[in-house]
């Protein structure tokens, strides 16, 4: 195997390969997938000189450890965490040179949920439908990382960024999600519509890449029965029978039969990717622009 490779020593709770995803295949039942915190993934790619579409590693809560077979430049961003190379502290949020054979450890998130590791040249697992992203719902793309697997790397596309550090948004202490009501808000009582935007929720520990689940007031329906399955979009706020809103994230199903009470502004979804269980959630209604 080429020396342009990365051996996984510690896979962590859930580490996946992610890029910009595979949008445009909903008619085939294929979710878009891709990095949940897309700005963080794009930033670490820029730091190491990769193209925006290069694949990175997305960790969940407790990081991962990898050993490159050749000298590489890496950058870690997203959720703040400790970074070490052979046990010595290294920079977070900046380019770091890692010699071949050295152990790079991405530590547990100090705040937030997901950290992103970019490696010069990008992770070059075989693409599926134009993307290297792991899709947990459909099973497309590479499986989540396990200890001992080896990931191929591409050739560096350009020099790394000449910076000491760059600004990153902090993980939210309160998650504010701007929503436009609809398309099925008429399936809910006036009291439920008021509760959605006036009462507090918190992020549930059952959240994942498919959806951010919430705990809080139940939303009462004005209509009985169920809808026929219809198309679902990124950021849709679906209300299952338990009455608690679920915000659809990158691996969401492309169709669903539970009513969608609102849709989240896409600009607010990266923060949702970093909202740890227990984080307060507030839905803020906005008007459609004309």
TrEMBL record:
Q: Which Pfam families match?
A: CT_A_B
Q: Which UniProt keywords apply?
A: ATP-binding, Hydrolase, Nucleotide-binding
Q: Identify the residues that the record assigns to the Carboxyltransferase domain, covering every copy.
A: 27-290
Task: List, alphabetically, the InterPro entries matched.
Answer: CT_A_B, Cyclophilin-like_dom_sf, PxpC
Tell me the protein's name.
Answer: Biotin-dependent carboxyltransferase family protein
**Species whose genome carries this gene:** Streptomyces heilongjiangensis
Q: What is the lineage of its organism?
A: Bacteria, Bacillati, Actinomycetota, Actinomycetes, Kitasatosporales
């Amino acid at each position: 195997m080429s020396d342009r490779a990365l051996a996984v020593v510690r896979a962590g709770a859930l580490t996946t390969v992610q890029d910009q995803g595979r949008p445009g295949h909903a008619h085939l039942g294929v979710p878009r997938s891709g990095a949940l915190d897309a700005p963080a993934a794009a930033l670490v790619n820029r730091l190491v000189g990769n193209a925006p579409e290069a694949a990175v590693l997305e960790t969940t809560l407790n990081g991962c450890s990898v050993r490159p077979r050749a000298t590489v430049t890496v950058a870690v961003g997203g959720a703040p965490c400790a970074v070490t190379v052979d046990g010595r502290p290294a920079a977070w949020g900046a380019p770091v040179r890692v010699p071949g054979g050295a152990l790079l450890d991405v530590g547990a998130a100090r705040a937030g949920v997901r950290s992103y590791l970019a490696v010069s040249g990008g992770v070059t697992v075989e693409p599926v439908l134009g993307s290297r992203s792991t899709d947990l719902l459909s099973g497309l793309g590479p499986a989540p990382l396990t200890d001992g697997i080896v990931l191929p790397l591409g050739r560096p596309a350009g020099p790394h960024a000449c910076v000491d550090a760059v600004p990153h948004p902090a993980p939210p202490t309160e998650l504010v999600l701007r929503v436009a009501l609809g398309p099925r808000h008429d399936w809910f009582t006036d009291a439920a519509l008021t509760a959605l935007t006036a009462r507090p929720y918190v992020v549930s520990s059952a959240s994942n890449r498919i959806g951010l689940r919430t705990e809080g007031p139940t939303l009462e329906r004005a209509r009985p029965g169920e809808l026929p399955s219809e198309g679902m979009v990124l950021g849709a706020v679906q209300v299952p029978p338990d009455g608690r809103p679920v915000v659809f994230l990158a691996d969401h199903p492309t169709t669903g039969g539970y009513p969608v009470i609102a849709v989240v502004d896409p600009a607010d979804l990266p923060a949702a990717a970093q909202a740890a269980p227990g984080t307060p959630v507030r839905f803020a209604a906005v008007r459609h622009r004309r």
